[in-house]
Amino acid sequence: MTEYDAIVIGVGAMGAAACAHLAARGARVLGLERFAIPHEHGSSGGDTRLFRTAYFEHPDYVPLLRRARAGWEHLESRTGARVFDETGVLYAGPPDGELIPATESSARAYGVEVEEVADAPSRHPAFRIPGEYRVLFEPGAGFVRSLAAIRAFAGAARADGAELHEGERVVEWEERGAGVRVRTDAGAYEANRLVLTAGAWTPQVAPGLAGRLTPTRQVVGWVEPRAPSACVPPAFPCWAIEDPEDGLYYGFPLVDGPSTDPARRGLKIGRHVPGPPIDPDHVAPASIAGDEPHFRRGVERYLGAVGGVTTAVTACLYTMSPDGHFMVGPLPDHDAAVVACGFSGHGFKFAPVIGEALADLALEGRTELPVGFLSPLRGDRAGGAA
Ligand SMILES: Cc1cc2nc3c(=O)[nH]c(=O)nc-3n(C[C@H](O)[C@H](O)[C@H](O)COP(=O)(O)OP(=O)(O)OC[C@H]3O[C@@H](n4cnc5c(N)ncnc54)[C@H](O)[C@@H]3O)c2cc1C
């Protein structure tokens, strides 16, 4: 008998959720994390993540998002942690752009509540939205507190008996018999199944996927609000605005509660465009002077009246897949390993359902959850598109 039913490599967003789901089913679980749980060196730092269900990226994600939303609520009731804030999300963009038509068609396909906002200047006065843009509002959307969520998943996993090792890096693994053997910088372990959730480091632990995953450096910033009382929901919800030149800007209202960095005061803003490819072990630290230009034009254009000086910036990692869609399923050419990677800058909101799918795949060899369109094999079979 092996020591564990499953070893999870990487206890970030997806790995922590997988550990919690595996342990809740009574599996013997070992989670191995090279940094602390949680930490800010990977893809999940910066405190907050948007949660949207009217999904412009592809309507096939909507059933997974509904399951994920229930998963966030379950995590809150199980642990008492505050993880999800339903602020709504305001969408604005050119009528013939990508964001508005695709958000609307996802909402229509699955009956997600989204309303047209005809009176944006009076309802949401802090935003400066071009008159020719269409504006939509999804009331059931909001944001997830990313580091609190990882902490809560890890706590739930430990409470159900999972062993989580922090500061222990996996060096190599191999299939042995019907299971796996994993070697770290501190020891060696055996399990029936391996779950790979190593984020931007996935190419190091799954070299077969290296050519299809590109880690990129992403920057987000915080700006001082000139009128703080105008920057809270409902007048100031989470938001996403398509810019014809710069891509998608997005942001958050003023968020209460502690941040990992006290300099992060004010309104968080980001630009959802893949940054330069990087080696995740050598990411240049963010600086206001060097990184502010990446998002500052979005502040001037869309938050003109309330956007003050930049108070902080941070660098975070995307792991781009070739088509921008996730890779979730059995690891190609391996019987005992499953993988979840290539989240391409939009995966956090799905963590509960991805953790559930990974637990199904690791323990049962199959899942009823509709993740087939995310198969890591899809590029080999169908030429790339998800
Ligand atoms: C700036 C930015 C903004 C984003 N905004 C949103 C958003 O608004 N909404 C949304 O849904 N998503 C968003 N995302 C995407 C989302 O955050 C990611 O998809 C998600 O965090 C990916 O989780 P992960 O578990 O794959 O990676 P991580 O959380 O980085 O976890 C991977 C873990 O594996 C560990 N690891 C790697 N190699 C090893 C090893 N050899 N041994 C042990 N441990 C190892 C790492 O240390 C890390 O903890 C954003 C991402 C960024 C960077």
How would the blueprint of this fold be written?
Blueprint: E1 4-9, H1 13-24, E2 29-33, E3 48-51, H2 62-79, E4 84-85, E5 89-93, H3 99-110, E6 115-116, H4 120-123, E7 134-138, E8 142-145, H5 146-159, E9 163-166, E10 170-176, E11 179-184, E12 188-196, H6 202-205, E13 214-225, E14 238-243, E15 247-251, E16 267-272, H7 288-291, H8 293-302, E17 307-320, E18 327-330, E19 337-341, H9 351-364, H10 378-382
Parallel strand pairs: 1-2, 1-12, 2-9, 5-14, 12-19
Antiparallel strand pairs: 3-8, 4-8, 5-7, 6-7, 10-11, 11-12, 13-16, 13-17, 14-15, 15-16, 18-19
Helix pairs in contact: 1-5, 1-9, 2-5, 2-9
Bound molecules: flavin-adenine dinucleotide.
Architecture overview:
By secondary structure, the chain is α+β, with helices and mostly antiparallel strands. 25% of the residues lie in helices and 29% in strands. It contains ten helices and 19 strands. Strands 1, 2, 9, 10, 11, 12, 18 and 19 form an eight-stranded mixed beta sheet that branches. Bound molecules: flavin-adenine dinucleotide. Residues 9-15, 32-35, 42-44, 46, 49-50, 169-170, 197-199, 201, 204-205, 218, 220, 270, 316-318, 343, 345-349 line the site of flavin-adenine dinucleotide.
